[in-house]
Amino acid sequence: MDGQDASGLEYNPSDPDVMADPFPVYEKLREEDPVHWSPSVKSWIITRYTDVRDMLLSDNLSVNRLVQFYTALPPREAELLKDMVYYLNLWLAFRDPPDHTRLRRIMRHAFTASAIEKMRPNIVEISNMLLDRLEEKKTDKVDLVREYALQLPAFVIMDLLDVPRDRLDDFKEWSDDMAVFIGGARNATDKYERAARGCTNMSAYFRELVIERSKNPKPGFLQDLIDARDKGDKLSDDELVATCILVLFAGHETTTNLIGNATLLFLRHPDQLNRLREEPALIQSAIEEVLRYDGPTNALVREVAEDHELHGKTLKEGERVFVMVNSANRDPRRFEDADTFDITRENNRHLTFGQGIHLCLGAKLAREEGRIAVQALFDRFPDISLDPDEGPEWLDAMVPRGTRRLPVRLGG
Ligand code: HEM
Hints:
Layout: H1 16-20, H2 23-32, E1 35-38, E2 43-46, H3 49-57, E3 61-62, H4 66-71, H5 75-80, H6 82-88, H7 99-107, H8 113-117, H9 120-135, E4 141-143, H10 144-149, H11 151-160, H12 168-182, H13 191-215, H14 221-227, E5 229-230, E6 233-234, H15 237-268, H16 270-278, H17 283-294, E7 300-304, E8 308-310, E9 313-315, E10 320-323, H18 325-328, H19 363-380, E11 385-386, E12 393-394, E13 403-405, E14 407-409
Parallel strand pairs: 2-10
Antiparallel strand pairs: 1-2, 3-7, 4-14, 5-6, 7-10, 8-9, 11-14, 12-13
The chain binds protoporphyrin IX containing FE.
């Protein structure tokens, strides 16, 4: 039967019930078939904490999965995706050592702690500006994703990369187009056309910007990227364009989902929201708990680089593996009361920013944005509640985890 393997277990990420709450099926997989072959996803599904962590640290798996994918495409699709695959192949996120080592060593010069620290006042300003706008809609039903969770990180990243804020709609559209491919949308039919269009628009924009900044330098993150050197080596123009796309892409949707998921969790757990209100200093551990309990990284994707065994199953070279981060973060073998949302949790070593050489470069910025956005929202609208008539709508994707729409009432 489609979607079922010999164990009788079925994992269907497109099932609306699974999208809304994947955790019951993760629990079953963790307990009954932790290295699960899914016929419908045509991939291995890995669900236990230690397996997920070890796989992210292992040389047996590769992130360089585009080559095989691209080679297998029919000619029309291959032509459509040519540019997109070219740029994605320049992302350090899709490179193994030694290419990854080189790119990461150059890029870390732009991702310094002090560069991120400088962003703080900007995040506060953007959050206040958006909340001021929301004051006017206090009596209406509001989609919190569209009006807040999406805009805040998008503006932060656009400011970081020197993109004027009035291009928000363009950037959102281009990035959504690319996301149907990168995020692994399961139900989109025109995903290659959309992805190609998004990439063409985005790369053209950044190419011009990089050329302009190379002629007329202006201090900031983009300039730091352009100037970043490691022993004389630097990013090529194509690598710079690809890196801008990566930062925009990696930096905003993930953080949107963090803010959206956090809002939903607090509204569903009023006791934890009250606890945070009594003790605002808990915001740090509260955001860590959101990242663990229902974080924006549902899964990460790898390709088997060398045949190897795991729990009695043989993973063969070239097969695709989904390491299910959100399942790992709920593994009772690693976390006490794993299914309890507890904002005072200590020793919260979740895997939401990855592990090993690809560990998220923007984690500090994302955490800062999450803390500011969530605290400012609940301070400004103490009576905010979920809309009683319309529930959240989840993203149709296997890799990110977040709400596409989150209807709320700001005035209670
Ligand atoms: C809550 C928000 C975020 C989450 C959950 C997140 C998560 C992740 C994860 C899991 C990885 C590793 C991917 C893998 O191993 O395949 C990663 C890599 C990366 N992230 Fe983030 N991220 C977030 C925000 C950001 C932001 C704000 C930026 C930039 C401003 C950023 C930039 C990057 C970059 C450049 C990489 C690639 C690192 C490498 O391959 O060496 N991320 N992120």
